[in-house]
Amino acid sequence: MAGEGAFERDRTYLTSRVTADGRDGWPVEPGRYRLVIARACPWANRAAIVRRLMGLEGVLSLGVAGPLHDERSWSFHLDPGGRDPVLGIERLREAFERREPGYPNGVTVPTIVDVPSGQAVTNDFERITLDLGSQWRAHQREGAPDLYPERWRDEIDEVADSVYRDVNDGVYQCGFARGQDAYDEAYARLWGRLDRLEERLRGRRYLVGDRITEADVRLFPTLVRFDAVYHGHFKCNRQKLTELPALWGYARDLFQTPGFGDTIDFAQIKAHYYVVHHAINPTGIVPRGPDPRGWLSPHGREALGGRPFGEGTPPRPPPVSEAVPPLV
Asked: Distance from the CA of 310 to the CA of which of 148, 205, 273, 326 falls in 20 to 30 A?
């Protein structure tokens, strides 16, 4: 049982789906939808990775909200004029209001928006990545990997569920705890799971099977933010990621795999957490470190075998308009 003051995530989402058969009224159509993410957000990072791996850049456009937001929702403050150039809106909330006037729930990324109507279709982050890998198959690039192979689905689901509960959400349970007992419980769950993942990855390159799967896509966004944000800002400070040999090697292996590291902007990640979370960091000071260049150091994980994309191939480099700053 969670201690007093435990953080509870709002999981109320728009659950409509964009599908090949249009069962919810939103059929897959090239050019019709816009995937809105924020480089800062780990939940949105998943969708950005899968879109890259599937090669959907030409059929599903990308809107990028800036790292700063307030109670009115994510905004497009990095775009010219402070508006998304395709949707013409200043804040993502406008797309939710067009779908449901007076929308009462959280406005989150990733969100898929219907461009003709300007309406938010879904912000169900778990379903979005699965659907990009399955419902959009007719428009995927040649060589797109299968991230959710039928023969491993039960294991992928089991691993991904524990990663979500104890790690993805676990760092937030630590950071937003409002009582010592709640924090202590979350901290224990987080590090218990990270210890088990460290053990699991000592003898295998990926979490499930011999290739990258949905489980890896879900763990990576938390690991890549760990030392920069969660270790200090969220008080997850038993060890740094760089002090966990298997997890650090695994994370670097993924970072150096096309589709993963080329979605990461450390400056935006740090700006979001350290500036937006006033209750945790009231000064708004953004730390200079850690030095991100270690992410490019050799990892040696190839010796464990496996094929990153299975029978598939790596994606091409991202479009110039979507490139993230190089590590310096």
From this structure: 326
∠ CA 270-35-139, rounded to 5°: 130
Structure tokens at 239: 């060890």
Q: Which amino acid is at 192?
A: G
Which phi and psi (to 5°) does residue 113 adopt?
-115, 135
Q: Among the options 13, 33, 41, 183, which is catalytic?
A: 41
DSSP for residue 10:
-
- Structural domain 1-328, CATH architecture: Up-down Bundle (1.20)
Confidence of residue 52 (pLDDT cuts 50, 70, 90): very high
* 41 is an active site residue: yes
Domain boundaries, the chain: 1-328
Average pLDDT, the chain: 96
How do residues 292-323 score in pLDDT, each as one tens digit? 999 999 999 999 999 999 999 999 999 999 99
Confirm whether 172 is a catalytic residue: yes
Q: CB count, 10 Å around CB of 305?
A: 9
pLDDT bucket at 220, cuts 50 / 70 / 90: very high
- Per residue in 229-276, pLDDT tens? 999 999 999 999 999 999 999 999 999 999 999 999 999 999 999 999
Task: Tell me the CA distances in angstroms from 312 to 53, 142, 173, 176, one per residue in order.
Answer: 10, 8, 37, 40
Is the pLDDT assigned to residue 9 strictly greater than 60?
yes
Q: Compute and round to an integer the Cα radius of gyration of the chain.
A: 19
Query: How many C-alpha atoms does 130 have within 13 Å on its Cβ side?
Result: 15
Q: Based on the number of CB atoms within 10 Å of its own CB, is 51 exposed (0-12), middle (13-18) or buried (19 or more)?
A: buried
CB proximity list for 89: less than 8 A, separation 6 or greater: 76, 83, 95, 118
Contact criterion met (CB below 8 Å) for 268 and 228: no
pTM, rounded to two decimals? 0.97
